Amino acid sequence: MSEIWREEFLHDLCPRVQPLIARLLDSHCGCAILEFFHHRPLTWLEASDIAYHLRQSLPQVIDALNLLVRARVIEFRKILDFTFYGLTRDLEIRRALEQFWVWRDYWHARLEHIRERLQLNAPNSLSAMGT
């Protein structure tokens, strides 16, 4: 995402959500982890399982999980020698995440519309130039 699109995207979000989303966009796989838990909101997995599903390295996943835990978006539970991660149960944070996912889908649709318009106009532009 270019810096201009990133700033416009962040500007459209609720001001309370902007810092969190900015950190997620800067994270290597933070958004992928959120997307993973968006589709599996009741799932609790170990970091190695998350890395496997996302096809990411374990250190990158652990870094992103630590960021998400500090932001209270992801919770963890330790059971014996195992640490399981899951989406927060905090309703306010879940509502903020839902806003993020809605806006993300809106921006994705907007970008697709622009791409389609550019592709439709490209042949006409070339033929008008005599090529």
Describe the structure.
This protein is mainly α and about 130 residues long. The chain has one domain (about 5-130): Arc Repressor Mutant, subunit A. The chain has six helices and two strands, in the order αααααββα. The chain has helices at about 5-10, 20-25, 30-40, 45-55, 60-70, 90-130; strands at about 75-80, 80-85. The chain has a two-stranded antiparallel ribbon. The model is unreliable at about 125-130 (pLDDT under 50).
**Number of separate domains:** 1
Rg, nearest Å? 19 Å
What structural category arises from helix and sheet content? mainly alpha
User: DSSP strand (E) fraction?
Assistant: 5-15%
Characterize the overall form: globular
Counting DSSP E segments of at least 2 residues, the number of strands comes to: 2
Query: So, CATH architecture?
Result: Orthogonal Bundle
The termini sit apart by: 32 Å
Low-confidence runs (pLDDT<50, min 5 residues)?
A: 125-131
**What is the class in the CATH system?**
Mainly Alpha
Strand order of the largest sheet: 1-2
Overall mean pLDDT stands at: 82
CATH fold node name:
Arc Repressor Mutant, subunit A
Main pleated-sheet profile: 2 strands, antiparallel
CATH superfamily: Winged helix-like DNA-binding domain superfamily/Winged helix DNA-binding domain
Percent in helix: 55-70%
H/I helix tally? 6
Order of helices and strands: HHHHHEEH
